[in-house]
Amino acid sequence: MALVVTLLLQLVDQHRDFDTALLRECRDAVMNAPQEPTEDDVRACCDVLQRCVQALPREATLFCIVEGIAFFEGPKKRTAQTRVVLQRLLELASDEGQEGRARIKCLFTTPARSPEFVGLFKPYDVWTADSVNSSGFVPSLRRNSSWMMGRRR
Question: What is the gyration radius of the CA atoms in the chain, in angstroms?
Answer without folding.
Answer: 16
